Pilus assembly protein TadE
Amino acid sequence: MTGDDEGAVTVEAALGLAGLTVVTVLLVAGLTLLTSQLRCTDAAHEAARLLARGQPHEAAAAVHQIAPPGANLEAHQAGDAITVKVSAHPTGGLLPAIDLNATAYAVAEPGVEAPDAPG
């Protein structure tokens, strides 16, 4: 080993570890976003089901409990068709420019007037 090569292995190892750290952090951020998206989807399905049964307050509570913090619930009804959209903006994440949205549909049960969900 010559004098010019001293420390080259240390620098290469440091760069390799930094690269692995960045990849690991991005993988964790991606898994967190995936989990949050699934939570939005589950919340939208549950809210649509509850609204179809005529339970708007329970639908809002379910979204508050299931979806990521700060999620918004929008519900629209056209005849018997109920459309529910749950949207969330992840806070404190490494990928802040990503918005999460999930939509679910349901048909109101016979004899049930499914009112719009409270905001």
In short: The CA atoms of residues 46 and 62 lie 7 Å apart. Residues 2-107 form one domain.
